[in-house]
Amino acid sequence: MMETKPIGLYVHIPFCKKKCNYCDFCSVACGSDKITRYTDNLIREIESYKRNPKIKIDTVFFGGGTPSVIDVGSFLKIASAVYDSFDVAADTEFSVEVNPATLTDEKLSAFNAVGVNRISIGLQSIHENEMKILGRIHTYDDFLKTYHMVRAAGIKNINVDLMYGIPEQSVSSFKKTLDAVIALSPEHVSAYGLIVEEGTPFFTNRDKLNLPDEDTEYSMYLDADRKLFDAGYAHYEISNYAQPGYVCRHNLKYWRDEEYIGVGLAAHSYYLGKRFYNTASFDEYFEDFGAKYRKEENANVGLDKFEYAMLGLRLSEGISLAEYKKLFDESFADGNEEKLDAYIKAGFMQIKDGRLSFTAKGFYISNAIMAELL
């Protein structure tokens, strides 16, 4: 009997001390009563996956929101439910997202106690004016204290989140942020271009934002790509860079179209060949911990082709053209041969060893290119 491939587990913690001005994630700022009630329902959802034999997982990712804002007791209860309900592999990558000024020695001790071995810290910028515009509640000094606290706790896999395209940000200020982070030598860096999403304070006030122009933002992207490459980081996904051996194994499951289970408010899953997601309503989630208000995504051949290409082309490894033809009984370029050839000649895409991928230059405009090709 073939052994089942381990899957990933995503645990959504939707609480923050304060919601940032650019954030459109499913997150809220609220107090301990709601956290307690949410924890109870989240545990019920986790326990609903108990199987005999148990589902094997080899990545766990606590995301949010800000998982580090919940109390130690709630975190330990949730982690305990994970270990009780799933078969957790010995080499599991266990990630937790934290924000500076929300982490304590007590919380770090709890993380160590349950096997957390990867911490992702949301910095975004080292400049106070840029962080204030974003609505971040921490200072650069808070970040440094948090970073060194995590290192002192023995965590050997740290990610730092950065953002470019911030209002009032310049090429020079972003370079200073990059240099400061590279000097710390985290194992992983995520650098995201700001997107002004509908429903956020930034969107409401978008006409008043002093945003960098496209050329300036592109220069920031290129600086991140060059500086991180020179410092030994591989640009393995559109927004992600890693030192050798430190790519995010959990996120790779999404991009490689592998299965995962998501639990918590608005969490998405791809399990047993089906894609589904939980309600984003606290009231509905509290009523039925997600099962009653879980929705299944439409699944058809067109959507599968689209997702396969969209996800795979986010990675520097790209997609296998032979595998694409085998899966969908057609060539990727069918009907788009001229467009694809033009993007390759322009240096935005490449075909190497039978795999189609974006170049570093192409990553920056990948959404526009994929809209043309797909």
Write the layout of secondary structure elements.
Elements: E1 7-13, E2 15-16, E3 28-29, H1 32-47, E4 56-64, H2 72-85, E5 87-98, H3 105-113, E6 118-124, H4 128-134, H5 140-152, E7 158-164, H6 171-184, E8 188-193, H7 201-204, H8 214-230, E9 234-237, E10 240-242, H9 249-255, E11 260-263, E12 268-271, E13 274-277, H10 282-288, E14 295-296, H11 301-312, E15 319-320, H12 321-328, H13 337-345, E16 349-352, E17 355-358, H14 360-364, H15 366-373
Parallel strand pairs: 1-4, 1-11, 2-3, 4-5, 5-6, 6-7, 7-8
Antiparallel strand pairs: 8-10, 9-10, 12-13, 13-14, 15-17, 16-17
Helix pairs in contact: 1-2, 6-8
Would you mind describing this structure in some detail?
- The structure is a single chain.
- The chain has helices spanning 32-47, 72-85, 105-113, 128-134, 140-152, 171-184, 201-204, 214-230, 249-255, 282-288, 301-312, 321-328, 337-345, 360-364, 366-373; strands at 7-13, 15-16, 28-29, 56-64, 87-98, 118-124, 158-164, 188-193, 234-237, 240-242, 260-263, 268-271, 274-277, 295-296, 319-320, 349-352, 355-358.
- By secondary structure, it is of the alpha/beta class.
- The protein has 2 domains: 7-255, Aldolase class I (TIM Barrel), CATH 3.20.20.70; 300-374, Orthogonal Bundle (Arc Repressor Mutant, subunit A), CATH 1.10.10.920.
- The strands form 4 sheets. The chain has a 9-stranded mixed β-sheet, with helices on both faces.
- α1 (32-47) packs parallel to α2 and α6 (171-184) packs parallel to α8.
